[in-house]
Write a structure and sequence with these properties.
The chain is mainly β. The chain has a domain at about 30-200: 3 Solenoid (Pectate Lyase C-like).
């Protein structure tokens, strides 16, 4: 399903008639929505939750979730500070639409609350399954501490055509020490944000994003200021065609393999850091880059630093376009040979502007590398480290003011051939 097609379906599902609404009608709707939420604030302790870390709070929390989603079409769920022992999956599954549609917002506010998993089988701790249209699902301040014997920590699934989870938000969430992924999202999940959250020390990935069966599409997901660290496999893995995800100001460190693995590309990585990934490798020579990226991608202001096994910022097989602006890759100690990129491809194109660190072209990709040049201005001396490049050719201005070109690195001011001669 193309992005245009998906948005067209959404317009038909929820947008019909919006343009006919008057300003007064919309104001009235907003007022009704505020009164609705004010009348549907549900406190988990009113359903029997204790939060002392000893009492099994599974049934009480399941009751409040069922009441909010199953009977009230949303609401504000408050889980007060405490340690809530969970012995089986907390699962919310909406029935088919229109009965199961949740459009008023379902907000779980749980600052200071920790779900302590005592689950002893590979099942999720908290799971949301949509068989309908779910909007404004929000989780704030919740911490999930896995048992290491359980499955994924936080799961969102919507794998039926014509069903959606969108306009969702995770904010200030912590998921750690789970036996599977910290967070897993699959299927028709889009127009959502993850803010200031922490996915660490999970047995598999910190987070996994995936398209689903029946051509269900995950897209337009934005991740801000999150940490993916110490996970057994990847910090983040994007699979089954998922690629329309943006990461801004995130940090990927000390994961077993890649900080980010994106087998179909990644829309945007902006001001993200990658440090000391590939902790499972035996040595620097057996390590790899912070990012593994196929097909395409855009990186702006991303950095990589290593003192152990991470070898580059990115390893990419480019079949479309890769753009890197202001990115750096370096290392010290055992990783003093760390660089910026290892690039190969199938008739792909890469543009590097204002970057620092060594770049290995392993074939199949055309690289336009402006090095540290800014605003299209390049050093002119033949022995400058960041000469303008066209593929494998270097350009410089000799002492007589003539433009010269050579395939490979020049050895003197008069090396190569004058351009236009």
């Amino acid at each position: 399903m193309t992005d245009l097609h998906r948005r067209g379906l959404l317009a038909g599902t929820v947008g019909a008639g919006f343009g006919l609404a008057s300003a007064a009608a919309m104001a009235q709707s907003g007022s009704d929505h505020r009164r609705y939420l004010a009348g549907t604030t549900l406190d988990a302790t009113d359903y029997g939750a204790v939060g002392d870390g000893k009492v099994d709070d599974t049934d009480a929390l399941q009751r409040v979730l069922d009441d909010a989603v199953g009977r009230r079409n949303g609401g504000l769920i408050v889980i007060p500070p405490g340690r809530y022992r969970i012995t089986r999956t907390l699962r919310v599954e909406t029935p088919g639409k229109p009965k199961g549609n949740v459009t008023h917002g379902c907000i779980i506010r749980a600052y200071g609350a920790r779900l302590v998993s005592a689950i002893d089988e590979p099942e999720p701790v908290l799971e949301f399954v949509s068989n309908s249209v779910v909007r404004f699902l929000t989780i704030e301040g919740l911490e999930i501490q896995g048992s290491g014997r359980d499955g994924h920590g936080l799961v969102f699934t919507c794998v039926a055509r014509g069903r959606y989870i969108y306009n969702f938000c995770l904010r200030d969430v912590i998921v750690q020490r789970c036996g599977g992924d910290g967070c897993r999202m699959t299927g028709n999940i889009f127009e959502g944000q993850i803010f200031n959250s922490y996915f660490r020390d999970n047995r598999l990935n910190g987070a996994t994003f995936s398209h689903g069966p029946e051509n269900t599409v995950l897209s337009a997901v934005h991740v801000f200021g999150c940490v993916f660290g110490g996970n057994g496999v990847h910090g983040v893995e994007m699979i089954e065609g998922a690629e329309d995800i943006g990461f801004q100001g995130c940090y990927f460190l000390e994961n077993g393999k890649f900080g980010l693995s994106a087998s179909h590309g990644c829309t945007l990585l902006s001001h993200c850091g990658f440090e000391n990934n590939h902790e499972r490798a035996a040595s620097f020579s057996e390590g790899d880059a912070g990012i593994y990226l196929m097909v395409k991608g855009t990186l702006v202001g991303c950095t990589a630093y290593s003192i152990r096994r991470q070898t580059h910022l990115i390893r990419s097989y480019v079949t479309q376009n890769l753009v890197m602006v202001g990115c750096t890759g370096s290392g010290d100690g055992k990783a003093d040979g760390a660089g910026l990129a290892r690039l190969s491809g199938g008739h792909g194109h890469a543009v590097l502007l204002g970057t620092q660190g060594t770049v290995r072209n392993e074939g199949g990709v055309t690289i336009a590398d402006a090095g540290r040049a800014a605003a299209g201005r390049f050093p002119s001396n033949w022995d400058a480290p960041d000469l303008a490049r066209l593929g494998s050719y270097r350009l410089w201005v000799d002492n007589d003011g003539s433009l010269r070109i050579k395939k490979g690195k020049p050895t003197s001011d008069r090396d190569g051939n004058p351009v236009g001669a």
